[in-house]
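STRUCTURE REQUEST FORM
Protein name: 4-diphosphocytidyl-2-C-methyl-D-erythritol kinase
Source organism: Kineococcus halophytocola
Requested output: C-alpha cells
Priority: standard
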Amino acid sequence: MSENRPAVTARAPAKVNLLLQVGPVRDDGFHDLVTVFQAVSLHEDVTVTPAADWGVSVEGAGGTDVSGVPLDGSNLALRAARLLAGRAGVDEPVHLHVRKEVPVAGGMAGGSADAAAALVACDALWGLHTGLDGLAALGAELGSDVPFGLHGRTAVGTGRGEQLVPVLTRGSFHWVFVLDPAGLSTPRVFAECDRRRGPGWTDPGADGRLEAVEAALRGGSAEALAAALSNDLAEAACALAPHLTRTLAAGRDAGALGAVVSGSGPTVALLTDSAAAARDVVAALTPEVGEGRLRTASGPVVGARVLEAVA
Ligand code: ATP
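Status: completed
Returned output:
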C-alpha cells in the first residue's frame, strides 16, 4: 500500500557563512562557534519515492561533480530518511534521488541540505507533520549545519552552529562563488586551525564582528557587509590549499566588494552589489578560473520546503 503513495520532492539551499568565529574545542570534540549563515540560491532537490528497499541515487546539476558522494548507508540524505522513519515508527522504505547543484565538500553544506530536504520530503510523504522544530532537532543529530538547511534565510548560529536565531535583513545580496576542483575536509581544516593556534591559545571572545555583520544586514548594505565578512578558518583553509589566497585576491581584483572563504572552504564567496555586478565579476574572472567554476546566486532564500507532489 505504501508504494501507491506519490513521490515528493523537497528543495533545500546551500549556505555561506558571513561570519565564522571559531572558539575553543569542547569536551565532545566540536568547536564552539559563533556564525552567521545566509541561505543562497544554489539548491539541492531530493525526491523520495516509496520503494521495496532503502536506496539513494545522485545526479549533478549544471556540471556539479558528484563523484565524491557516497551511495551507501553513509549518504546524509539516506541517513536522514532512516532516522526520521525510525523515530516515527514508519516502516515504509523509500528511494531518494538527489539532484545536486551545490559543490561537494565545498564548505557550502550541500550534504546538510540533502539531509534537510530528505527530512522535509519524507515527513510530507509519510504525513507525519513533525514540524520545523522537531525536524531541526533530528537534523542536529546528523550534522551541525542541517538545522540551518531547514530554517534557511539568515541566522546567527551558536553552539556547534545548530542553535539558530533569525537575523533581520533588508533586500537581497548578490554572490559569485568560485568552486574548487578539489574538496577540503571540514575536520582537517578545524584540526589545522587548532594546530596553528597552538595549546596556549585563549579565546578573545566577543570582538564586535557579529554586531558589524548584523548592522550591515539590517541596513541592507552590501558594502558594509563586504567589510564585515570574516572567517576564522580562512587561514587554515589557505594553508591547506595555498592557491585560495590567489583566488581571494583575484575576486577582489575582478570587482567584488568583498571575498571570503565559505565555511571550511575551498569555495570562495565574492560579494557584489547587484546581479549585474555579479555577472561582471564572472566575466572578469572567467579567463583566469574558467566559467565552469563560477556560479552566481543571491540570498537570503527560504529553507527546505516541498516543491511538488508528483502524481
Ligand atoms: P560543511 O560545510 O557542512 O562542512 P561541505 O559543504 O564542505 O560541508 P558536503 O558536500 O556537505 O561538504 O559533504 C562533506 C562530505 O560528506 C562529502 O565529502 C561526502 O563524503 C559526505 N556526504 C555524505 N552524504 C553526502 C551527500 N548527500 N552529499 C554530499 N556529501 C555527502
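Reviewer notes: The CA atoms of residues 63 and 292 lie 7 Å apart. Residues 7-167 form a domain with the Ribosomal Protein S5; domain 2 fold (CATH 3.30.230.10).
Form closed.
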